[in-house]
Every structure is written in C-alpha cells, then in structure tokens.
C-alpha cells in the first residue's frame, strides 16, 4: 500500500493550502463588504478592499508559480501517478477515492498511464497475472464501455503472457492528454481568469468610491464653527 508521504507533494500541498486560505478569505470578504456597504462603515469597506487586493495578488502569484515551476510540478505529478499506478488495487478500499479519481481521468481524457500504457507494466497485480489483464479505464474497446474501473481480462490462451502492446487501450499518455486539453481550452481558461480579475478590480473601485462618499457625507455633517 502507498504510504501517505508517497502520495504527497510540497507544491500540491502549498497549492491546496492557498486555495483553502483564499476560500476562507473570500467568505470573510463577502461578509465585510455587505456589512460595510449596508451600515456605511469605512473601516469594513477598507478591509473589503484589502481582501480583494490580497486575493488578486495571490491569484497572480499562483499563476506565475505554475508557469515558472511547471517542470517541477510535472516531475512531482509523474512520481505521484507512478506510485498510484504501481500500487493500484481495486480491492483496496482505503485508496478507493484516489483510484476512482485516476480512473475518471483516464476515461475522460481517453489516455492510459502518465507517459503511456507501459507505466501499467509496473503494477503488482498485472505482473502477477502475466499482463493478461489491463485497466478497464484505459480501454478503447466498445465492450468495456460500461466498465470504468478495475481490471479487464485479455482474451489470450491459458498460461500465456502478454505485454501492454497487446492491450486494447489508448496509446496516448495522460500527461500529453492534459497538456492537449489545456492548449485546446486556453482561450476559455484565460477568459475566465480575466473575467474574475475584472470583477475583483470593479469591487475594489466600488469599495473605494463608497469610502470616499461616506467621507464626504461625514465632512458635510460636521457643524461649522
């Protein structure tokens, strides 16, 4: 079985913590923004502006980290997926969620393994079965369409051996599949990111405007001596 440390990655952990922090900050930000706007409290609007600015800076920083550390992230993902494939066991309920997630990736992207189907030759169960079975989620055969997890048996004579080249599976590795998906959807991804950034900037401008209006109203209310 995989030890917890084998399925961990410093970069992925950092990214997860950042997402958790941004999510919590977003909830706090929304509460402060509503409270400050309704009650015209300048300090809360100032906090709302600060939270939006921190989130925007964090998003830009995360994008830069992903761009400049993409090779490191790719190596870590390769190590993690390699360990997952090597220890993949349909009867292991402790790792079921993780294995189901990987089966889903292979099914949706129509890929097999990280670099290719050859990665599955390191799986202990398939080795014990002389490679006469293959991961169902990799299958490109119509008869396996209803099965998206576990192993499917290869039609070979009894007591024979096989290799990944004999499997009816997708030739494309998931690494290439993910990269292709990102390239194909780059415009949509950039559009969504730009839209989110614009909304955040509008929120910052609006909070500053409200602060100025409140300040002006407070100034007019001050009695002249």
Automatic annotation (TrEMBL):
UniProt subcellular location: Membrane
Keywords assigned: Membrane, Transmembrane, Transmembrane helix
Keyword Ribonucleoprotein: no
Record bears the keyword Hydrolase: no
A matching Pfam family: Tetraspanin
InterPro entries reported for this sequence: Tetraspanin/Peripherin (IPR018499), Tetraspanin_animals (IPR000301), Tetraspanin_CS (IPR018503), Tetraspanin_EC2_sf (IPR008952)
Transmembrane segments: 16-38, 45-68, 188-211
Membrane topology (UniProt): Multi-pass membrane protein
One Gene Ontology term, aspect cellular component: plasma membrane
Family: Belongs to the tetraspanin (TM4SF) family.
Protein name in the entry: Tetraspanin
């Amino acid at each position: 079985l995989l030890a917890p440390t084998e399925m961990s990655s410093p970069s992925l952990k950092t990214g997860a913590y950042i997402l958790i922090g941004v999510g919590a900050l977003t909830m706090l930000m929304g509460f402060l923004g509503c409270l400050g706007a309704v009650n015209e409290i300048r300090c809360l609007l100032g906090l709302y502006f600060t939270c939006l600015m921190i989130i925007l800076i964090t998003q830009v920083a995360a994008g830069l980290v992903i761009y400049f550390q993409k090779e490191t992230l790719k190596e870590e993902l390769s190590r993690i997926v390699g360990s997952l494939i090597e220890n993949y066991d349909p009867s292991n309920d402790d790792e079921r969620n993780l294995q189901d997630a990987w089966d889903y990736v292979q099914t949706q992207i129509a890929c097999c393994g990280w670099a290719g189907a050859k990665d599955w030759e390191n799986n202990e169960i398939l080795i014990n079965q002389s490679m006469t079975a293959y991961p169902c989620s990799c299958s490109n055969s119509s008869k396996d369409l209803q099965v998206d997890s576990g192993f499917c048996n290869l039609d070979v004579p009894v007591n024979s051996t096989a290799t990944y080249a004999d499997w009816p599976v997708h030739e494309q590795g998931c690494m290439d599949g993910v990269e292709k998906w990102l390239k194909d959807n780059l415009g949509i991804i950039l559009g969504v990111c730009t839209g989110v950034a614009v909304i955040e900037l509008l929120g910052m401008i609006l909070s500053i405007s409200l602060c100025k209006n409140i300040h002006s109203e407070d100034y007019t209310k001050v009695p002249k001596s």
